[in-house]
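C-alpha coordinates as discussed.
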Protein backbone atom coordinates (compact mmCIF):
# COMPACT_ATOMS: atom_id res chain seq x y z
CA UNK A 1 0.00 0.00 0.00
CA UNK A 2 1.45 3.39 -0.99
CA UNK A 3 1.92 5.99 1.71
CA UNK A 4 0.00 9.23 1.19
CA UNK A 5 2.22 12.22 0.34
CA UNK A 6 2.57 14.80 3.11
CA UNK A 7 2.08 18.25 1.54
CA UNK A 8 2.92 21.43 3.42
CA UNK A 9 2.09 24.79 1.86
CA UNK A 10 4.50 27.64 2.63
CA UNK A 11 3.15 31.12 1.92
CA UNK A 12 6.14 33.47 2.16
CA UNK A 13 7.11 36.41 -0.04
CA UNK A 14 10.80 36.45 1.00
CA UNK A 15 12.56 33.74 -1.08
CA UNK A 16 15.43 33.12 1.38
CA UNK A 17 12.96 32.53 4.22
CA UNK A 18 10.75 30.33 2.04
CA UNK A 19 13.74 28.18 1.07
CA UNK A 20 14.84 27.69 4.70
CA UNK A 21 11.33 26.62 5.71
CA UNK A 22 11.09 24.37 2.63
CA UNK A 23 14.35 22.67 3.59
CA UNK A 24 13.01 21.93 7.08
CA UNK A 25 9.82 20.53 5.52
CA UNK A 26 11.88 18.28 3.23
CA UNK A 27 13.99 17.15 6.21
CA UNK A 28 10.72 16.07 7.87
CA UNK A 29 9.95 13.89 4.85
CA UNK A 30 7.19 16.12 3.48
CA UNK A 31 6.79 17.93 0.18
CA UNK A 32 6.85 21.74 0.34
CA UNK A 33 4.52 23.74 -1.88
CA UNK A 34 5.69 27.35 -2.23
CA UNK A 35 3.52 30.42 -2.75
CA UNK A 36 4.93 33.94 -2.99
CA UNK A 37 1.67 35.72 -2.13
CA UNK A 38 -1.66 35.10 -0.44
CA UNK A 39 -3.75 34.66 -3.59
CA UNK A 40 -1.30 32.14 -5.03
CA UNK A 41 -1.38 30.28 -1.71
CA UNK A 42 -5.18 30.20 -1.77
CA UNK A 43 -5.16 28.73 -5.29
CA UNK A 44 -2.57 26.10 -4.37
CA UNK A 45 -4.40 25.17 -1.17
CA UNK A 46 -7.65 24.63 -3.03
CA UNK A 47 -5.98 22.64 -5.81
CA UNK A 48 -3.55 20.49 -3.80
CA UNK A 49 -5.23 20.19 -0.33
CA UNK A 50 -2.09 20.39 1.85
CA UNK A 51 -2.19 18.99 5.38
CA UNK A 52 -0.51 22.09 6.83
CA UNK A 53 -0.27 25.74 5.84
CA UNK A 54 2.66 27.81 7.12
CA UNK A 55 1.97 31.43 6.26
CA UNK A 56 3.59 34.77 6.85
CA UNK A 57 1.29 37.39 8.36
CA UNK A 58 2.16 40.10 5.85
CA UNK A 59 1.82 38.85 2.26
CA UNK A 60 1.12 40.65 -1.00
CA UNK A 61 -2.45 40.52 -2.38
CA UNK A 62 -3.95 38.63 0.62
CA UNK A 63 -2.63 38.63 4.18
CA UNK A 64 -1.86 35.46 6.09
CA UNK A 65 -4.80 36.07 8.43
CA UNK A 66 -7.14 36.61 5.45
CA UNK A 67 -5.76 33.45 3.83
CA UNK A 68 -6.54 31.41 6.94
CA UNK A 69 -10.01 32.95 7.11
CA UNK A 70 -10.66 32.15 3.42
CA UNK A 71 -9.68 28.51 3.95
CA UNK A 72 -11.45 28.09 7.29
CA UNK A 73 -14.71 26.72 5.84
CA UNK A 74 -13.12 24.67 3.06
CA UNK A 75 -13.88 20.93 3.38
CA UNK A 76 -10.16 20.10 3.38
CA UNK A 77 -8.90 23.13 5.32
CA UNK A 78 -5.27 22.65 6.35
CA UNK A 79 -3.98 23.11 9.86
CA UNK A 80 -2.67 26.67 9.79
CA UNK A 81 0.46 28.09 11.36
CA UNK A 82 0.75 31.88 11.25
CA UNK A 83 4.34 33.12 11.31
CA UNK A 84 5.81 36.58 11.34
CA UNK A 85 9.06 38.24 12.26
CA UNK A 86 7.07 39.94 14.97
CA UNK A 87 3.51 39.57 16.21
CA UNK A 88 2.04 42.54 17.98
CA UNK A 89 -0.75 42.04 20.53
CA UNK A 90 -3.26 43.69 18.18
CA UNK A 91 -2.41 41.15 15.44
CA UNK A 92 -2.57 38.06 17.65
CA UNK A 93 -6.33 38.55 18.08
CA UNK A 94 -6.79 37.87 14.34
CA UNK A 95 -6.24 34.18 14.94
CA UNK A 96 -7.02 33.78 18.62
CA UNK A 97 -10.66 34.66 18.01
CA UNK A 98 -10.83 31.76 15.55
CA UNK A 99 -9.22 29.37 18.03
CA UNK A 100 -5.92 29.13 16.16
CA UNK A 101 -3.63 30.97 18.56
CA UNK A 102 -3.62 31.53 22.29
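Sequence:
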Amino acid sequence: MAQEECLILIAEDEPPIAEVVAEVVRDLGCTPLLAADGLQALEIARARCPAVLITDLMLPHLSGAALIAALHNEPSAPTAVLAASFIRPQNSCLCSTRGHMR
